[in-house]
Structure formats: C-alpha cells, structure tokens
Hints:
By secondary structure, the protein is α/β, with parallel strands linked by helices.
Amino acid sequence: xxxxxxxxxxxxxxxxCGVKATIAPQGEIEIAGDPDHPANFGRLCVKGAAxxxxxxxxxxxLYPQIDGARVAWxxxxxxVARRFAQTIERHGPDSVAFYVSGQILTEDYYVANKLMxxxxxxxxxxxxSRLCMAASVAGHRRAFGADVVPGAYDxxxxxxxVVLVGSNLAWCHPVLFQRVAQAREKRGGKPFVVNIDPRxxxxxxxxxxxxxxxxxxxxxxxxxxxxxxxxxxxxxxxxVEEHTRGFHEALSVAAQWTPGAVARRTGLALADVxxxxxxxxxxxxxxxxxxxxVNQSAAGVDKVNAIINCHLATGRIGAPGxxxxxxxxxxxxxxxxxxxxxxxxxxxxMEIENPEHRALVQTFWAAPHMASKAGLKAVDMFRAVAxxxxxxxxxxxxxxxxxxxDADRVAAALAACPFVVVSDVVARTDTTKFAHVLLPAQAxxxxxxxxxxxxxxxxxxxxxxxxxxxxxxxxxxxxxxxxRMGFAKAFAYETxxxxx
Length: 500
C-alpha cells in the first residue's frame, strides 16, 4: 500500500497557503507546501510546517454535553432547537444570536447566516472577524459600493513599489513576506519596500525606507500624499472623471496637510516625508498593503479610505502591480464576508439596508422571516447578552471570553445568560465553561469545504483523517437544529458541496 497525498489549505492566517499532506500506510502524516497552489507555490511558514503536530487528540471535545454530562447528538440538538424556538416565541427573534468565527468554513458560515437572517428573522449574527476586518469592510463599501479587495498576490511581485502600512508581514503573513523579499532581491538595489509603522519590526529589516510615524497619524500621512499626488504628474484626471465622484471634496479635506504639517503630525523629518511622497509619485506600479495597524483603530475606516483615495486619484487600481490591498488575519475572514457573515451584510456582498437586496435573498432562500435591519455587532451583541436583551446565544469556533474587549464583562454576561451553546474543537476554554450545551466540532484535518483568502481566492480544505470521537461539521449541526425548528426543506443538506 503506497502513501496517499491530499491537497488542502493551511488554517492559520489569511494568506491561504496550499498544503500537501502525505499519509503513510501506517497513518503518519507528513506536511509540506503545495507547489501548485498559487498563494504560496510550495512555501510554508513555521506554523504551517508544524501542522502535523496539531492532529493529536489532546484536550479534544469528543462528545456532545448538556450541563457537563455526555449525551447523544440527538438529545443535544433537540434541546438547542427547543430552547431557541421557545426564546423566539416568547421574546421575539432579536432575543437570540449567533457569534461565529473566521476559523469556520464558508459552508458553515452560509448555513448560519441563512438560518439566522432568513428563518429566525434576525440579523444577530456576527463574527470575531469583526474585530480585525470591520474597518476594511466599511472602507471598501464606502469606496467601491461593495466589500471587495481589488488586488492579488501576484501584484506584490509585479509592483515597482510595495508600501506596507500597519502590517508586520514577516510575523503575521510570513509567506507573503517571503514573496515580497524575493521580489525585492530582483530589483537590483532600487527602492522597493516602504514600511510605515511606529515600531521597528522584523518586517522593517527588508524596508528600503522605514517611516516610524506617531501612532494614529496614518490619515494625516495619506491625506498629505493625496494633496501631493493631485498636484503632480501622477494625477489621472481622466480616471477620476470617469470612475469616481467626490474627488474635490476629498481634496479640500486634504488641503491643510502640507508636507510640513504631515511631518509635525507624524513626528517624521520633513525630508523623509518629501522623499516618500516623491517615491510614490514617480512609481506607477505601487501596491499599498495594510493590515491590523490600520484596521484596529478608532479611525480605521478613515485610514482605509485615505489609502484607497491615493490609488483612485492616480488610477493605480485594477491593473497588474498596483492597488490598495487589505490582508486578512484569519483563514476565512473573507469567506465569511462573501456569504454575509457580518450583522450588517447579506450573502454575496449585498446590503441588508437595501429592500431590493433583501427581496432577492429572501426569494432565493424562500425565507419566511427575513431580517429587515442590521443586527448587533460583536461587542454590542455581548452587551445585549449582559443586559438581558439576548437570552440565547450559540458561539462557534471562537473564545470571546478570551478575545473580546472587556473580557470580564463578557464572562459575566455569559454566566447570567439563560442559554449558551458552544461549538468547539477543545473541551476547556474560557468560554466553554459557561456553556449549557457543548457541541464537538471537527478540527483542521477533519473538515471538508472551502475557505477564501485575502486575495479572494477560494481553496479547498479536505479531510486527512476520520473525525475524532463524535465530532461533526458546524454546518451539519446548524442544519440539524434548523430542521428541528421546522425548516427541514430549506436545510436538507447532505454534503458541503450541496451548500457550495
């Protein structure tokens, strides 16, 4: 019996690297990069290379539990369906919520979104991706009318200048860092990487220019750049006229940000500000990569739009080697966004505030109780749990007592919540101890479905082995509850392929 090779996708970050798992006849699994996957071409970072070490059964949640006692799946699902249905009947659809995760697959996200928004009739479904990507979502929608990323990884190699803003690529997206570093080596000493970050990080080591700006000064920096570009040869008046609106209003806001004003606000030397502005001005193929240092800010949306506006003013967007590029943190933050996994979205990037979009989705789903307004977002959702507005919550693949702001308040909220369901891979987390019902989810290496990476490339995640214990897919648990709530026809899924 020969070894079997299975291609799948790394679950660690938004790069979405292809993985080749070779399974020996005795069951040992060897992990390597997939040389044919266009995200990484065989590269893996240290985390991806060590994926085999995550396949053990230590600390796994293996069986459904009610109040800490092992039960059959049917008993657990019956209770979840009954309590959710009773809560909705007594207190209305907005008294229940789902809090999901960028760790679940797109098919899981889709079923959760469909159940909550189309059949429960509330938009109280949000995700831990809210914490890292909400600013980009809002910035994209404000700029383009939809949450789309107008870039691809190939642009990093085709560019003549890569500007990294609020992104320690070396640590957080190591394979993308490797691609940028390799592209830089081919430039023969020409300035290729600018690193805008208050700190000097591992990423700064390959920077031809490190601009250690004051924290929070990104908007001033890019408004100043917009002002400079509008007066330069880089300004593309035809593109602005044909493809944008509001340019003069944006420019009027930027008017005060002279190079001197930018230098004072950012704490940089005037010469460095002018050098950066000049470098961007004369480099048509410029990619601006930004991540959590931009997104996780009180002014995150404005930072995103200030960056995007510089590309719109120059027409450096939608072409090889140029564009604003948001890189996501979690493996499937983008897949969740594509199927409407946020409280203020519908599937396929449609808007919950738009009656025509709602009608289209409701017709497609044959949904009886379509949500008509945005639901509660992550932080507000747990505030609603705390004050009693939400009386039943299902948490999937995430640990909000550890990861949300004001974690102690989240813990207190869950402790007081009448009904808490948690689907997870491991038995003991800061959140699982508050669960009335625990549902064992499948882990990486057991899951079957798709994920979408930062460049919006859909990749397969394939199982390498049988699930541990009685672990089941999240989509299956959701569909099973939906059937028990009376929605069997709409959730008669047998495979993730049917959902896709």
